[in-house]
Design a protein that fits this description.
With about 110 residues, the protein is α+β, with helices and mostly antiparallel strands. It has one domain: Hypothetical Protein Aq_1857, Chain: A (Sandwich). It contains 2 helices and 9 strands, in the order βαββββαββββ. The chain has a 6-stranded mixed sheet. A 3-stranded mixed sheet has the order 1-6-7. The chain starts with a strand and ends with a strand.
């Protein structure tokens, strides 16, 4: 399961609406892809439909879909939002990551 912090929920709802998505029926698609300074990087985008093999979760009013392969890397992750001085953006708090880069956008197991 993937959890969503309260701050991330507010930002997701705001951005989905701005981008023409409906937060009550559309999804946040979270995935993992090769790349980044630590080997793997996170991918986050909005989507209107699930595809075969997707796992769907709902936490804190946010519907999240994850492809089967990425799910193995993301079990137990919490999606958070940071608006600090070093920039703002979504942060993945992933208990499975052994090493992360300084920007928090890539990791390794």
């Amino acid at each position: 399961m993937i959890k969503v912090s309260e701050h991330a929920k507010r930002k997701v709802m705001e951005l989905m609406t701005e981008d023409g998505f409906n937060p009550s029926s559309d999804y946040v698609r979270v995935g993992v892809k090769s790349g980044g300074c630590s080997g793997l990087s996170y991918d986050l985008k909005f989507d209107k439909a699930q595809v075969e093999g997707d796992k769907m979760f709902e936490d804190n009013g946010v519907k999240i879909i994850v492809d089967k392969k990425s799910f193995l890397y993301l079990i137990g992750t919490t999606l958070e939002y940071s608006g600090g001085l070093n920039g703002s953006g979504f942060v993945f708090n992933n208990p499975n990551a052994n090493r992360t880069c300084g920007c928090g956008e890539s990791f390794s197991l």
